[in-house]
């Protein structure tokens, strides 16, 4: 009787792999192969948007700027300063009566940025000084191979794209750390103070120019090399965006090949799976919108962050080109819309089990995680999804046979976090966080489960088809 009651009444929490047959396993591996290949060519927000544009162009999407009018079935996108992108398929249903189904992720990831005046020489070495971007544990970024990605813009507008370290015959760069033999004082420090921000200096060269009278000979030699290769001078660093990312490629992890290790999976795993899901759609009932935002890791501010009005502008353009726009329609459309804030969740890590409430944690391999709310210390700053909306999304998932977990980020009072969810929720949209659980989040090498990546694709497609 106990077994019967359990079967009938108790919420099942099962490892997803248990029910995977050979055919489905093949599909899971195909999805993750595509994902890893994409990650390896899209380590920065600019590179992600460039690759997303290519994919969208191949799937019949048009830049909304080139459209004068829109009708159901039309596929459009808008690219904001090469760093964020919004895509839409116009639905059969009236957007005025039914709103939109939005999925929003971010394509920026924690990293090290070069300072505006980066180049210096000390003790016979040339360095680039850096300022870290997003929440990192600084010690994780020393003694690993780093690649340099980004752009340098000259005053005449010429754009030089930089990508050094990804090809096997490129040089790489690194940040040194103290040998243990002499690290007695450093090892006594608190972990967060062990490596100081100002000491995240990238080692970039050691050969001096052959001129006894010259000052800072190694720096001068580097400048000379950069001038020969890219035609730049030191001043051109002033108008550059250069990012250091781990050189490691995304790889399959484990004897059983069940996981992906890779840089920038927060939140490119949700960005990729939502983009992929959108490419699988032709016509939709309700207007489907995909957001690939920038600057989430530093608070979503600025003109490429989700707090900017650029997204409103895109939706207004849709309303204009549908020929239906009128005062307050934009507000109405947002209030009628539904959204998945597709961002990663903290995966339960048995080594650090003490930070998680095991009943409310997200487990790798059990499907996507939904965070009803985020925030910290008494849910402060949380966007809390209404129970009615959670029930709606549960119904969508259950009728499509998609596994899911409803979770919380860590134990009460142990920390917290946020996503872009609150930004759309503040406009009146129903929003819930929905993404892939990750181990070692924000580290140079993050871990996800291939099962969850596959489940994310299925979830996003089902949401848009609703
Ligand atoms: Mn994220
Ligand atoms: Mn993050």
Query: How many helices in DSSP terms?
Result: 12
Q: How many E-type strands?
A: 22
Q: Output the CATH homologous superfamily of the largest domain.
A: Zn peptidases
Give the mean pLDDT: 97
SSE blueprint:
Layout: H1 2-9, H2 22-41, H3 45-58, E1 62-63, E2 75-80, E3 84-89, H4 95-98, E4 100-106, E5 111-122, E6 125-133, E7 146-153, E8 159-164, H5 184-188, E9 201-205, H6 217-230, E10 240-246, E11 251-253, E12 259-262, H7 265-279, E13 287-293, H8 310-321, H9 329-336, E14 338-341, E15 345-346, E16 368-371, E17 375-376, H10 387-399, E18 404-407, E19 416-417, H11 421-425, E20 430-435, E21 437-438, E22 446-449, H12 450-465
The structure holds manganese (II) ion (2 copies).
The site of one manganese (II) ion (MN) has 3 residues, from loops.
Describe the model:
By secondary structure, this protein is of the alpha/beta class. It has two domains: 11-109 and 263-465, Aminopeptidase (3-Layer(aba) Sandwich), CATH 3.40.630.10; 111-246, Roll (Aminopeptidase i, Domain 2), CATH 2.30.250. The chain contains twelve helices and 22 strands. The strands form five sheets. The chain has a nine-stranded mixed beta sheet with strand order 1-2-3-13-4-14-20-16-18, sandwiched between helices. Helix 2 packs across helix 12 and helix 7 packs across helix 12 (450-465). The model has no long low-confidence stretch (mean pLDDT 97). One manganese (II) ion (MN) is lined by residues 266, 297, 442.
């Amino acid at each position: 009787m106990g077994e019967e009651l359990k079967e009938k009444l108790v919420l099942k929490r099962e490892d997803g792999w248990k029910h995977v047959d050979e055919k489905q396993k093949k599909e899971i591996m195909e999805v993750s192969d595509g994902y890893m290949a994409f990650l390896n060519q899209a380590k920065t927000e600019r590179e992600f948007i460039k690759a997303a544009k290519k994919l969208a162009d191949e799937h019949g999407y048009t830049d909304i700027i080139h459209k004068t009018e829109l009708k159901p079935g039309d596929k459009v996108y808008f690219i904001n300063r090469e760093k964020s992108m919004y895509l839409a398929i116009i639905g059969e249903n009236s957007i005025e009566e039914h709103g939109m189904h939005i999925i929003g992720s971010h394509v920026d990831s924690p990293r090290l940025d070069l300072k505006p005046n980066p180049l210096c020489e000390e003790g016979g070495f040339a360095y680039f000084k850096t300022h870290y971007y997003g929440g990192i544990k600084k010690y994780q970024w020393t003694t690993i191979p780093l690649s340099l990605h980004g752009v340098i813009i000259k005053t005449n507008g010429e754009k030089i794209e930089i990508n050094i370290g990804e090809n096997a015959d490129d040089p790489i760069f690194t940040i040194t750390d103290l040998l243990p033999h002499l690290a007695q004082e450093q090892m006594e420090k608190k972990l967060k103070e062990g490596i100081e921000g100002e000491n995240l200096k990238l080692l970039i060269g050691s050969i001096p120019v052959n001129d006894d009278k010259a000052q800072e000979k190694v720096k001068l030699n580097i400048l000379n090399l950069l001038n020969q290769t890219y035609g730049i001078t030191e001043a051109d660093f002033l108008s550059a965006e250069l990012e250091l990312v781990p050189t490691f490629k995304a790889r399959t992890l484990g004897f059983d090949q069940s996981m992906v290790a890779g840089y920038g999976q927060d939140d490119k795993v949700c960005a990729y799976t939502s983009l992929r899901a959108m490419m699988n759609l032709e016509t939709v009932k309700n207007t489907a919108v995909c957001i690939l935002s920038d600057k989430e890791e530093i608070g979503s501010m600025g003109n490429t962050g989700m707090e900017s009005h650029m997204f409103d502008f895109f939706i207004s353009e849709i309303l204009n080109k549908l020929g239906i726009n009128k005062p307050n329609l934009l507000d109405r459309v947002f209030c009628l819309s539904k959204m998945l804030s597709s961002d990663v969740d903290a995966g339960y890590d048995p080594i650090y089990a003490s930070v998680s409430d095991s009943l409310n944690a997200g487990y790798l391999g059990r499907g996507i995680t939904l965070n009803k709310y985020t925030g910290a210390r008494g849910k402060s700053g949380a966007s809390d999804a209404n129970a009615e909306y959670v029930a709606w999304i549960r119904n969508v998932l259950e009728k499509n046979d998609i596994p899911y977990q409803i979770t919380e980020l860590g134990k009460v009072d142990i920390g917290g976090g946020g996503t872009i969810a609150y930004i759309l929720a503040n406009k009146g949209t129903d929003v819930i966080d929905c993404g892939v659980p990750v181990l070692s989040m924000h580290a140079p090498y993050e871990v996800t489960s291939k099962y969850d990546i596959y489940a994310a694709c299925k979830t996003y497609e089902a949401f848009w088809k609703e």
